[in-house]
Amino acid sequence: FAEQRAAPYSMKTSKTKRYTVDNNVGGSNNLCCAVIDAEVDAHIVHLGTMGVYGYGTSGGEIPEGYIDVVLPGGREANILHPAYPGSVYHATKCLDALLWQFYQKNDQLRITDLHQGIVWGTNTPQTIKDERLVNRFDYDGDYGTVLNRFLMQGAMGVPLTVYGTGGQTRAFIHITDTARCIEIAINNPPAEGERVEIFNQVAETRRVRDVAKLVADQTNVEVNLLPNPRQEAAENELDVANRKFCSLGLDPITLDAALFDEVTEVVNKYKHRCDPTKILPASFWNKKRAEECASLDPSSVKIKV
């Protein structure tokens, strides 16, 4: 949890790119060294990302971490799934994955890597018991996750900021399931000597424009197609396996308009803190994307409620 967590922030400037690599990869390496030097039998659980697989069209179901292949000569093998990062942030998660493989092989560390989808929601059954336990809610273009951003924009009467065509398919998971998955992972560590355990920590996949329509239909706001600040495919498919967590007791929470109300309540309670100039994207993957987004004016966003 000590890693720089946002893909857009990692792409903002050369400084943020260097910081993301230094902090994330260096931190993972330091952690492994500390566990080895301390001579403790610790189980490392790393919160990774589905983005290690990339968001091109996979051509089939993405397995959990390892994939069956046929090597030249016809030899079959089960190898770490090829990495295909779409940002510096995602690249650090791919580098983390290689560090886990090395330290497991070299020092027999027990490690679990969680390839998590996009988190939405604000509360778990535990945090909702007391307002002082409320989770942070990011709505800006750098740290806000897409569904939470849409729900905030809808509640504030702001047109939904869909990048490009909205044809990007992404994996989603409610914050309650995030906490549950981490608990399951902690309680089911790999045995000493076993390879790195990898779970796909997702509930379902949805296309971004379909998610936007769900929110727009509920909040009666328009959908605004913006130039895409990211270097990515305009459209992609995504089929992801999540059988490991389901077999260990996870009953995934899927996108449901009724659950959106909880997020909307949080937004309405704290909407006086919203800075509308932070809603539009402010980080661009490369110079071409920045040029395409040059017409975006952060001061043009007006809150209607």
Query: Helix-strand pattern, N to C?
Result: HHEEEHEEHEEHEEHEHHH
Classify the secondary structure makeup into a structural class. Answer: alpha/beta
**What is the overall number of helices?**
9
- The coarse overall form would be globular
Mean pLDDT: 95
How is this structure best described in words?
The chain is α/β, with parallel strands linked by helices and 305 residues long. The strands form four sheets. The protein has a three-stranded parallel sheet with strand order 1-4-8, with helices on both faces. It has a three-stranded mixed sheet with strand order 5-7-9. A hairpin with a 5-residue loop joins strand 2 and strand 3. Helix 4 crosses helix 8. The longest helix is centred in the first third of the chain and has 25 residues. The chain is globular. The model has no long low-confidence stretch (mean pLDDT 95).
